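Protocol step 4 of 6: structure prediction from sequence.
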Amino acid sequence: MILFWFRAFFGDGPVFISFLFHSVMQSDLTQGWTCVLKSLSDTARLAKLLVKQLPIPVTVGIKGTLGAGKTQLVRYFVEALGGSASWVTSPTYVMVQTYLTTPEVHHLDAYRLKDIQEFHDLGVDELMQQPAYTWIEWSDKVTAALPEDYLEIEMSPQPDGTRVVTLKSIGPEYNFCISQIAAKWGA
C-alpha cells in the first residue's frame, strides 16, 4: 500500500487530504489471483466478496474436479444475495437452475453435455445477456461458447482439506474486480 499525504490550504486553516492507493497492477493479474480456503467460512467469505465486487450481468466459469467445492461456492453466493443455501444443489442432472435472488442467479452444469450445441440448446446465450449472475460449472468443457469476457474460478482440493482457488479474468473486464477482492481478502 502506498499512502500519500497532500497538504492543502483552504480558507483560514490547513486541510489534510489523504489518498490511499492499493495497487494490484494488471500485469500482476495475468495469471489470476490465488487464495487458499481453509474452511467453509473462508468459502462463504469469498462468496460475499464476489457478490460485492462483480458487475451485472456477469458470467462466471467455475472449474475443478468432482468434490472441489464448486457447488458449495455457488451455495454461499446465493446465500450472500439473500437466498437460501438449501435451494442450491448440483445442477448435474437438471443442467440449468435459476435462483430467485435479486438479481437472479443462473446455475448451469456442463459436465454431462455431449457438445457445444447441446450447451447452446439450453438457452445459455439468452441467460448470459440477462441482468443476472450466470455460474457455469465445468466451464472448461464449453469454453468456446463463453463470452469474450468472463470470470474464471478454478478450485483445487488439497490433501490437507483446503482448497486452492484461482480467480482469473478472461478478457480485461474483471481484472479490477479481482484486484478489489484480493485487497479485501488480505485486509
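Step 5 (inspection) to follow. The helical segments are 40-53, 70-80, 116-121, 124-129, 175-186.
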